[in-house]
Amino acid sequence: MGNPMLNAEPARAPVPPRLKGSLASRLWRHRKEYLAISPFYILFAIFGLFPIAFSMYLSFQKWDGIGRMSYNGVNNYRFMLTDPEFWRAVGNTLLIWIYSTVPMLFLALAVAFLLNSSFVRFRTFYRIGYFMPNVTSLVAVAIVFGTIFSNNYGLLNYVLNLMGLNSIEWLNKTWGIQLAVSVMVIWRWAGYNAIIYLAGLQSIPSVLYEAAKIDGASTVQSFFRITIPNLRPIILFTLITSTIGGMQIFTEPQVLAGNDGGVSGGGLTIVLYLYREAFIHNYFGYGAAVGWGMFVLIAIFSIVNGLFVQGGPTRGQGVK
Amino acid sequence: MATRTKSVLLHIGLAIGLLISIFPFYWLLVMATRTTSDIYSFPPKLWFGTQLLDNIGRVFDNVDFFGAFWNTLFVASACTLLVLFFDSLAGFTFAKFDFPGKKMLFVLLLATMMAPSQLSLVPSFVIMAKFGWVGTFKALIIPGMANAFGIFWIRQYAQESVPSELLDAGRIDGCGFLRLYWNVALPILRPALSFLGAFTFIGAWNDYLWPLIILTDERKYTLQVALASLNGIYVTDYSMVIAGTLLAVIPLILLFLFISKQFISDIAAGAIKS
């Protein structure tokens, strides 16, 4: 890269053949390196880039996946924006995302703090236990939680009855199924995020806390002025990953309540809606359009997240 | 003494959390040893029954469990081996060699991590159909056999741990590019490879949406797809579904327990780095 000869050359015209040869020979000399890194780029071009471009084209077509494609203008998009089911799915997804992400990240932070205390023994043991839900398959998790949230004789209804309350048909109610899905998400990801926060906490130099102590800072003060600011990039990371994950929730509601997201439709998330329209109803062009709708939503949310974490808590604090 | 109380409270808090994390596994185990009417009985049976072998027997009668198991094992192993090979080759090259356009290519690689995968669910399927790969394992294995995260991960590790002097010494001894990769770098990269391998294997084992779309023939079902279809069909024989679930979960839990300590710290390190 640092070849001054080569950098100076493009200004000179016409390019002498000797130079063309030297660039080519420079590339040729590194052919093994290019070959070694090429599989990723080739695969990405075929299975990443091309589908994105193709989905743009497809979203303007009417196609059932078998017959002929026909140009459909913006009708797919128009239908999407006026379909109450689509907006229902967007709303469901957002609600499930809020119900799950907020408690999950708080729980994760709390667990990380407990684990980070200097007098915890068996830390490894706890970490393994907390992390185990994360490696378990979602289908299995959904089946097990299905028996806990079961409409009639589930574990949860038994607990309600013990407390003198009536059973609830969890999976038939909009909020019930959203709660069930959120609980699964929390159960699966709180430990994972706790482990990440714990690593973040451990990377904060203890000198900072000692200095604050000498200056007479209380535990609460050092929490807000040392811990939170230092943890901010990691909190942002977990927030972004939970947003991307939350927008793509599919398996939990699909296994729990089927392709319509339950009797009430409360479990119909965006990806489930996309899956149903494209692969059950065979509206391929429409499915592609929904994919773009989802992309816009994720982009908006990621930006909002970024602003939220960068703004909010820092203001008015002279840290850093 | 105040520390003592604090420590007790701390352990109570952690233990409650741990109990919640573990309970569904215990509940799964209990249900798998019970009859369907036990599962839905009030009060619930919270201790083990005697039906485990019976339930498992009915799993084998109703679905080709071993078929699905081998399918999953094959797909997950193939994904893992290919990812390890292609990612380590590329990661090592990015870490230890200079070539024109390297920086730009690496930035491009990182940028692809932002590309949303669900967006291309439909067109990816269409491409698979064009290739004639629908219903085959190729569609599950080939698209993901080199990925940006793994290349990034290996590159970070290789930069820190593969000494350039060692590569120079290898060159003097007449090692070519491939020999340097295979004989010098790979042995050093082993810790990074074992994490990437476990991560890939677990992901492939648990994958559901893409196999659900791609696999059309029951004989090719992976465990997750087979399990979901079992769950959808046999509502009345739920203890059998639960036993199948248990069988599908056990191999991965064992694998995880075996590698957990290193795996968890690598997950955390990966998050902090990115």
The SS-based structural class of chain B is mainly alpha
Shape call of chain B: globular
Q: What kind of assembly state do the chains in view correspond to? A: heterodimer
Helix/strand structural class of chain A: mainly alpha
Q: Please count the helical segments of chain B.
A: 13
Distance between the termini of chain A: 37 Å
CATH level-4 homologous superfamily of the largest domain in chain A: MetI-like
Low-confidence residue ranges of chain B = none
Number of domains of chain A: 2
Q: Which percent range describes the beta-strand content of chain A?
A: under 5%
Task: Please report the first level of CATH classification, the CATH class of the largest domain in chain A.
Answer: Mainly Alpha
CATH architecture of the largest domain in chain B: Orthogonal Bundle
| Average pLDDT figure of chain B | 90
Largest sheet of chain A: 2 strands, antiparallel
Helix content of chain B: over 70%
As a percent range, the share of helical residues of chain A equals over 70%
**Number of helices, counting only DSSP H or I runs of 4 residues or more of chain A:** 14
Count of distinct structural domains of chain B? 2
* Count of β-strands of chain B: 0
First-residue to last-residue Cα separation of chain B:
42 Å
Quickly describe the structure:
Helices cover 72% and strands 1% of the residues of chain A. With 320 residues, chain A is mostly helical.
Please tell me about this protein's structure.
- The complex is a heterodimer of chains A (320) and B (274).
- A two-stranded antiparallel sheet of chain A has the order 1-2.
- Chain A has two domains: 38 residues, no CATH class; 236 residues, MetI-like fold.
- The relative contact order of chain A is 0.12.
- In chain A, helix 9 packs across helix 11, helix 11 packs antiparallel against helix 14 and helix 13 runs antiparallel to helix 14.
- The two termini of chain A are 37 Å apart.
- Chain A is mainly α and 320 residues long.
- Chain A contains 14 helices and two strands, in the order H-H-H-E-E-H-H-H-H-H-H-H-H-H-H-H.
- In chain A, a hairpin with a 7-residue loop joins strand 1 and strand 2.
- Chain A is globular and about 75 Å long.
- With 274 residues, chain B is mostly helical.
- Chain B has two domains: 79 residues, no CATH class; 166 residues, Orthogonal Bundle (MetI-like fold).
- Chain B is built from 13 helices and no strands.
- The longest helix of chain B has 36 residues.
- Chain B is globular, with a radius of gyration of 24 Å.
- The model of chain B has no long low-confidence stretch (mean pLDDT 90).
- Classes of the chains: A mainly alpha (320), B mainly alpha (274).
- Chains A and B meet through helix 3, helix 5, helix 6, helix 7 and helix 8 of A and helix 1, helix 4, helix 5, helix 6 and helix 10 of B.
